[in-house]
C-alpha cells in the first residue's frame, strides 16, 4: 500500500482532517487509488462513484467533507478501470465493482477501522447493494440514484439497435460529439449488464442491514420508478426523494450530504470514535521514508 498526505481544517470545525492518497490492490492484482479523509476516527465510511465517474465526483467529495465535520473518516476511491485505478474500463462489471469494494473493506478492517457505512452513487449504488447481498459485515448502506432495472437506460446511450450491432460486430464504440471514441461496449460486458439482476440481490440483504435510497425527483437518467422498486424489495429500507434534484444533485449537494450523514449517525450509538490512528499512521509514514 502506498501513502501520500496533505491536511486541512474541516469546515465549521477545529478538527484537523488529513487527506491521504492510498493504493489498495484488489483480488485481480490491480491497484485501486483512493483518498482517505482521516479524522483519527475508528469509524470509516466508504464512498463509491458511478458510471464513467471517479472518486472526484462532486457528491462524494461533498459527503466526505460533511462526514469529516462530524469526526467520521471517509474513503472515496476509483473502481478498477476508472479514474487513476488500474484495469480496463468495462460497461458492465457490476460484480467486479463489488469485488473492488470488498478489497477496500477488508483493507480497512485489517487497519482496525469499523466500517460504519458504504455509500454509492448511481452505478456505485448497485455496487453497495450487491456487496450487502453477498456479505453481511456492513450494516448501513446508502444507495444514491441507483438503477433497479439494468435493462433500462441502454437504448439512451447506445441506440435502439444496440443488440443487433453488438451481435454483428462484437462491440459498440461510443463516441462523443467530436467523433472521438470515449469507451467500448463489448459483447461480454453487455451480457454482464443484462444478466445482473438486482431484485434477487435485494432479497438477500440481511434485515438487520439499514438501507437508505435517495433519488432526485427530476432524475432524467434513472427513473424514480427504480427507487420505488428498491423500497418494495428491501426489507429494512427508507426512501427519500429530493424534490427538483437531478441525477447528480447539481443544485442539492448540501441536502444530499445532510441526508446521508444523518442516516449514518442514527446507527452510531455506543461506538468508540476517536482513537490514536493518526499516531500509528505517522509511524507508518516514517517507516516508509
From TrEMBL:
It comes from the Eukaryota. Pfam families: Hydrolase_4 (PF12146). Residues 44-168 form the Serine aminopeptidase S33 domain. This is Serine aminopeptidase S33 domain-containing protein. It comes from Aquilegia coerulea (Rocky mountain columbine).
